[in-house]
Each structure stands twice: as C-alpha cells, then as structure tokens.
Amino acid sequence: MNLDCLVGYDSKQAFRPKNDDSLFVDTSNGIFVIADGLGGLPRGDEASQMAANFVGEQLRNYIIDLPAKLDYKTKYPRVLSVMEMIVQEANTEIYDALGRSQPEDKRPGTTLTAAVVQQDKKGNRFMFYTHVGDSRIYLVSYPTFAHAAYGLDGESSWTNIDQITNDDYPDEQLIAQIRQHKPSAKMTNILMQALGLPSITVQKGVIALEPTVDGILLCTDGLTSVLSDASIALGFGEKRWRIDSTIFVEYMFTPQNIVDRLCEAAIMPGKYGIGKTEVQDYAAEHGFNSLEASIAIGGNDNVSVIYARIPPPPLAHLREFVFSHQANGRNDNAGNDRNE
To answer: Is the pLDDT of residue 270 over 80?
Structure first.
C-alpha cells in the first residue's frame, strides 16, 4: 500500500560537458531510483538511463501486482529477492547492449540505488532497497518528534541523517595490497561494483520506518563528495508540530526546497550556509578566500537528489512507539535488516 509521499527531485549538470545521472520517480507506487553513469567511460549516460528506467518500470509492474493488504513484515524476504533479481536483469541488459563487445576498460557502467516505500495492512511502514555503487540512501529523522505524542506541543527539532547503503569502495586491506605493487596508484572513487559488469553483487535490505523518520534521501556522489553528512543535514531545516486529536506538522522547507538547496550547495558550497565548514577548511589549507575555495571544491560532478517525505503516522502509532521505547529502554533500530 502506497504512503502518498511528498517528493522533490532534480538532476543538475554542474560544470560537466554532459549529465550522466538518471532518475526514476513513481510517487503513486512509492518507487525511487537514482543512477550515476561512470565518468571517464563512454556512454555512461546511456547506461544510467537504461538502469534507472528498467529497474523503475520492473519495480512498478511488481508493486502494482502485490495485494493491497500484504503483510510486509512476514513477506519481506520475497520482496527483496524480487528486487535483487530485477537489478541483476538490468545489469545483464546493460552488459549485453553496451559492454559485451567492448574491451574491458571501455565498458560503460553505472551505479544503481533503488528504494520502495510501502505500508502494510497493520499500518507498519517499510523501505525496501537495492544498491550497487556509491550513490546513497539516507534516512532523515527528527528524533524528538515522537515525544510530541505526550504533550510537547510546539516543540521543534533539527535533522539527523543516517546512511543506509554502503559505498562499494575497496577496503583498506585491498588498497594496501594495490599500493604495495604500485605506490603511485590513485585510489579515489574506485568502485568494486557497478552495473555493466559480467557479474555483480547487489546490496539489499529493509528498514522499518519508525515514527521519528521524516523521509528518505537518495543522492549521487556529486552531493556526498562535496558535502559531509553534517552539512547535508543542514539542508532540511527545522520541523515544528502541534498535537491535539491529530498531528499537525509545520516544515521549514518543502521536499523540493530541500532538493534545490542541496543541489545548489553541492555546486557552490557555502550557499545557504550549507558546506560552510568545508569551504573554510579548504580555504585555510590552500590560502584561498571563501569564494575561491567554494569554486574549487564545488560543481566538479553532476549532482542528483531525490527526497521523499513520509506522511506523519497516526497518533496511536506514535504513542505506541514512544511507550515501547520507554518501557524497553530502546534507542536503536532494533529489528531493521540493513544489508543481506
């Protein structure tokens, strides 16, 4: 069952000659896909577009056929298995169409990160995801929001963001081995997994969306290579609320406002105060002024962002959540299956 998320999204070319990023957004079915064609290789834009469209459309076909009152809590292994199969099929399509006839170092490739947000018959909310590469999914939450269920009307909270996916970069042991044989090797932005290879390993997982979760953020490394998680969190602003017989929430920014702010700050760090720390550190290290530092570190890659805001939960669910956490002393994401 779809949650009717409010969604903002954009893909900006920045200073690259072409945009290799692709997006697929299906708000009606809670499907969000982002792909980033590998720079330095030919036809990365085609690879990312194929990946985003194929995965998005296949997920749509699958979600539409699911029973409206499916109990995701017991059926999620099947959902994840289908999502992984779809990504594997997309990889085969890209490899056969663009890469098989090419030399190994000329084969197009792309990252692929997909999220499906659904609600089951009991009102439980879940995000299912699959992931290959270094695009990312973050959970965005306002931790003190849940306490509003017990009378803290009018309180406000700033954002926490929590990275869900793991970047497919080489681990420290592999980096050390490579540098032992080739000390001058550049080890930045090296991906161990991408669509377009003969075979891939797909990350997948499911997250229970607790009442403190405001939404999910999908982004390419055009954002995360420029801005730290702390700076990204500044893009969301405050959330205020009032509780009576229902939940009324007031946001500082709409999802589209948030996306625009983050994209612009990735191209020109320091704008809106987002990335100010990064600019100051770079300026101090290189003897630049703030404008010179902002120009130097921003806009070197395309940047794409999707933000899907989850509607507030029913008041009864919010109170049940707070009570269970207080009773059990929980302050974690117990029960969430991050990766398989």
So the answer is: yes
**Does residue 339 form part of some domain?**
no
pTM, two decimal places: 0.88
What is the Cα gyration radius of the chain?
A: 21
Contact yes or no for 29/60 (Cβ under 8 A): yes
Residues 136 and 37: their CA atoms lie apart, in Å, by 14
Segment 274-322, tens digit of pLDDT: 999 999 999 999 999 999 999 999 988 899 999 999 987 766 666 666 5
* Residue 333: inside a domain: no
DSSP string, 149-163: GGT-TT-EE--EEEE
Alpha helices (H) in the chain, listed in sequence order: 44-65, 72-94, 172-181, 221-224, 229-233, 255-267, 276-286, 290-297, 315-328
- C-alpha 90/C-alpha 112 separation (Å) is 10
CA distance 98 to 85: 20
Number of folded domains in the chain?
1
Domain residues for the domain of 308 are 6-328
